[in-house]
Amino acid sequence: MIRKCTEHGYFRGGSCLQCKRPGRYLLDDGREEKLGRFVSGTLRHFPASAGVEMDRCGWVDLNAFCDVMRKRYNWMRKEYLYALVESDEKGRYEIRESRIRARYGHSVNVDLDYKESNFPYLYYGASPEEVDVLLEDGVFPIKQRYVHLSTSYEKAAEVALIHTENPLILQIDALKAQEDGVSLKLATDYIVLAEKIPPEYIFVVED
Q1: Does the keyword Acyltransferase apply (predicted)?
Q2: Considering the entire predicted model, what is its pTM?
């Protein structure tokens, strides 16, 4: 459920986390899910199939995007899209002026223009079965344009637990990799993107 607090903006749940007021109702869980699936699919995977044009950096015209969504969902309003984006705790999307894009998770070929990360170390969670291969061959994207690295051990473990019950966390020597020409793009406060991570920068974090 998405609501709007007059003082603190859009939020998810029954009350604003800051002032505890219920705010103005916008979207129920069902419509929020439908909207989220369409936004994710279009901005990450199939813009052409949805009927929108995406530029090299992943941007889509905001008005054109809303027009496509209204044709699919007659209850759609532009405010609902802003509410979805601004209330998303994971920061999956961004709206800038008259454009919208996904920050990460693309399978389409985009060149995201983020600034370089300045984290000295980054982290990647993997199953025990994968680790030997990753240490030998490096980390490459699978079904996505970029490798998604975490800015903390805790975030890497949280992500990895979605896929495996007993993840091992790999540490990336980010500063050394960047010195050697590996680009590490800061997509959000918690996610850094790379085209690949060669094995010489990867180490297993000991418990």
Answers
A1: no
A2: 0.88
